[in-house]
Structures are given as structure tokens and as C-alpha cells.
């Protein structure tokens, strides 16, 4: 009971470890949070640890209190968000953990075994009337007796089973394992000995009779790749023959050790896997067509390829990638829990949960009221059109109570009216009973959810954490996070007042070149001074022109717009514009190739590209029109081509690393002491240095040694914003402590320290 009062405010009689204004923080609340965040720490419950954490916690609670005083906890957005979290947090408390644990262990144990079985299905709606259910059960028992008397189960399945596939497969399901069938079916199959026929088993599909043929140890999982050629049953004979010839031809090429991935990409008609070497996800028994599975599991060596295999989808060539057994329980446990939560097994958990909740909360029915309420059922209920008289005096009668709380006939009727739906079978009385059962279950679950905070300390404290956390996030964003980013004037003022915190230590403007050998180092050094390196990764398309013309086409301007954006966004780049002409173009007053380059440069500069980033080359006329001397070939010579250059040394490194990406590394920047070990190993004076280290050749060029200096705001903006946020938060906390004075109960704190 003491724990239940942890979240109360002024009316709490529990000792408080601190008060914020007039609001107490109970010792139990603080101790719960402290232990959750400090359990296992070596300094837990020392005076320093408890005192420091209490200061942090009171700061946190001050912010929450301010948010509440502003009404942020009364908004619809806040309530919606909190209710969503509460719904998620409640789920573990609305189930029977012991039942789930048993089901998880059972599922894992069964995964080690596979069952081969056939079945006969007599379909039945989940909400069928009792008389229909009994008729189906008796029919199943009759068929079972015939099977036990020696009649062939497969023929009985063909005759009586309402599973559409039974006509072809005689009810045979092949091998399957746990989690592949609905739980009641799986449970019966695993419990029935090989060679025996089960009693009728009820699932949501109806009644099943199961004959178990065999049980074997699970084969685990296999990973394969396949090449598929489509061939479907009933296709023309000529097409079927062509598919067989095609798969045989592919198989012969594989036998000649041709590359599997290339053949899969070129010939496989499984579009989902062809470009990935035909690779399929891991699978176990019951996941694929049986003969495909058997062929896959029959492969033993990695890379082994099976002969072409025909399935209803077509011809397959299968290659083994890997095999594995059942993973350890610890590796599968969480995945099994997630599956069971969505599986038909969850009904067992729900049934056990409702049974416990009924007992714990003294669920009591009033039989007379229930009988009277059911008497109002009529044929309209089967049509989904049932209604009731709102003036009926019996509406106030109690149907049942949960922990003394009454649930009336009116409550039930309102639920029934909303939840009713048309039913093809059954009686009105049975439909009313089904709705009543659903109403009872919902009422029990709702009652339990409403009382979780009183019943479970962990849940109550979790909800409180989410409640406070949502409020804190809203106010922190307003007061600290966004403000620090958006308040540019305040940020700059803070930076100017605290410039001593943001200083550069000793720095060197230097270039460090690391090369795999001396030849590469010499090449790098020779080209370093050029400061204009071709960007080989750039593949800029040509701009084409009409004969004897320099006007830019629409297609040309689209390309040039892209070039302009590239150049404007990176001042280290420059562009060579190379003009070309066809030998047949007439001579003009101005060279046509030159005119074209000028037109392009003007367009780019008009788009905002600095002229310093552009260079022109009029390469003149080209005698060779093209390999076929066609108009298309000649037009390719009426063009402008482009070469992109960069002054960044990274482009030089890329060019030198054409054969090996690790041949040369070049870094050019302002280095701080301690940032680069190689640079730190030479004397920090202007000059050039060479050395060997760790099998690499190094060239170090120090252009300037810089004395310690203040940083500019743009050089350390991220750190300044972080510090400014801390400053704003501390200022805000100080204001809150003035508004809501914090008083610590030293006696209660001492008790925790002694603990």
C-alpha cells in the first residue's frame, strides 16, 4: 500500500525525501528510481552518490512541475501520446508469463522433431451453433471408426475431406514441424503416435482427423541458390520440351565449371533472386515444395549442385550454400515469444489470464438477471439488426460484479448492439451467449488495465517515467534545445563571453603524404605543385551542335545547368571547355569551335559560375567524321567536350591510386598537436621532411606553424551550441528553484545512506 501512494502529491502521508515548493517527493519514489539507475554501481548508497542523484532528480521534477503548471499535461496531444505508451507498457501485465514460458519451451522442443501426417477436414464456423458442432463431431467420429477398421485413410480423405487439396494429395501434408500449423492441430499431431489416428481436433477451420505416418529428427535449415526455368503444369508440349532443353543446357555449362552467378543472372527466370546469384533465404522443413526441400537437404558439400528438378513452378538447378542445425534456445527464445504472441497459442495464455483475473477480482454473476437479459434475444440478432428498449426497467439490473463493481444489463446491451453482426448459422440465444462472453472478457481486461498502476509498482513507475518524460521533452525543446540553435544573437553573445574556452592549441598548416614506395612518393611530390588534377571519376557528357551553328539546344542547357551547380557548390573545381567542329562545316569569320566554347562559357558565367573556374580550348575541325562517315558520326564531331579538374589533393590521391586504393594518402590541413603521429615526430618548423614509418614512405611539408589563437564561431559551432544549451538549462533550473524552493529532508537522505 505504501508503494501505491508514491505518485500522490499533497495528500501523501509517506515520508518525503524532498519537497518542491509544497509538493513532496516520496522516499520510496526516489529510492525506486535511484536503484533502477544505480544498482550494481560500486558507489551506490554512498552519501556523495545519493546527494548527487537527488540533485539531478529534483532538477528533473522541477521541469516536470513547471510543465504541469502550464497545463501541458492537459492537451489532447499529450494524452494521446501517453495512452499509446500505456497500451504498450500494459501488454506484459495482461498475460500469464508462466503459460508463455511453457509454450515457448514446448515450441522449441518440438522444433527438434518433424511429423509426417495426413488429415481429413470437416469445415465448421468458429461460432457454429452447438447442434451443428455436435453433428460435425459425430460425423468425424464415424469416419475415424472406419479408418480404425482398416479403410484406407487417403481414400476417406478424398471422399469426405473438405480441404480442397485432398482430392489430389489424399490429405497428405508431408513433413511439418512446430509453428507451421494452428496450435490445436500441431498439438494433436505431436501427441498422436506414428501409425495412429487422432480423436477429432477442433480448430478455427473445423474438425480434423489426423493420421500420423512418421516422426523423424528435424533436418535443421538449409541455404541454397537456384537457377529456374519456368514450366507450369498444362503448358503446351512444345513449350515444356523447350524449358527442359534450356535447363539441361544450363546444367551442362555448370558441369564445365562456368560461373554460377553469371549463369543465374543471365538465364534464371526467378526475378527475385537472379541478380543475387539465385540465393534464397534460409529454410527448413515445410517451407518449400517437398521435392525441392528433399533435393536441397540431400546436398552435402558446399557448392554441390543437384541435377535439374521439376516442381509445379518449373525446372530448378539447386546449389548448396550452407546447412545448420537448430540454434540454441537462447538464440531463438525472443523470436519464439514474438511468434507465439501472434499464434493461436496465445488463446491458451488469454484463457489462463482471464481465469486468474476472475478469481483475483471476485467475479460474480447474477443468474436471474442473466437469464432475463438473454430472453430479449430474437431473430434480428442473427441479422445484425438487434435493438433494445432504452426505457426497459431491467436495464439497471446488475449482470455481474468485478471486485464489487456492478456491470448492468444496460452496459451489456450497449456492447451487444455495437458488436453484433449478421450470422449465417446458429440461434439467437447462442449469438447472445457469444456476445455476453465477449463482454465479460472485455470487462475483465479493462478492469485489470485500469488497476495496473495500483497493482504493480513497476508498471506504475514506468507510466510515471513516460508521463514525465513526454512533458520534459516538450519543455526542454522550447527552453533549451531549439532555443540554443535558433537564438543566433544569444549564441554569439555566449561565445564572445566565453572565448577562453574555445582556443586552438599549437597548429601547423601542413601537407602529409603517405606512399607505399618511393616512386609513388616522388610522383606525388612532383604533381603536388600543379594544383590542378583531373577528376577521373567525373564522366561529363558532351554538348552537341547543329552544323555551322553555335546556338545551345534545350538538351545542352539542361546539361550545362548541372555543370553550373557542380562548380558553384565546390570552388576547388574548374572546368576545361573543349570546342570541336566537323571538317565539313563551312569556315566562318570566327572559328566555329571557338564560338561554341565562348557561348558555353557565357552561359555558365550567367548562371553564376566564376570565370576563374573556366578555361576554353578551341580544338578546331576533326577530319575523321566517324567510323561509318555517317551524319550521326559527323554530328558527334560538332560538339563541346569537358574535362573537370580539382585543386584538392584528394583528387591527386585518387589518380595515383588507380591500381590500388591504398597506394597513396594525402592530407592537407591545419593540424593540431597530437592529431597526426607522423607529423608530431618531426620538428615543427617550416620546411620539408621525409621519413619511413611502419613500412610506408612519408613526405611532410610544413608551410606555417601557427601560434595558439581564438577559434572563430563557425570553427566550433557544434561545441558552442552544446555548451550554450547547458548554460540555458542551468539558468532555467536556477529560476525554477527560486519559483519552487527545494528542501531536502536530511533525515530521510541519511536513512538511504545508512542502507
Automatic annotation (TrEMBL):
It comes from the Bacteria. The keyword Secreted does not apply. The keyword Isomerase applies. Transmembrane segments: none annotated. One of its GO terms (cellular component) is membrane. SUPFAM superfamilies: FKBP-like, OmpA-like, Triger factor/SurA peptide-binding domain-like. It holds the Pfam family OmpA. Signal peptide: none annotated. This is Peptidylprolyl isomerase. The lineage of its organism: Bacteria, Pseudomonadati, Bacteroidota, Cytophagia, Cytophagales.
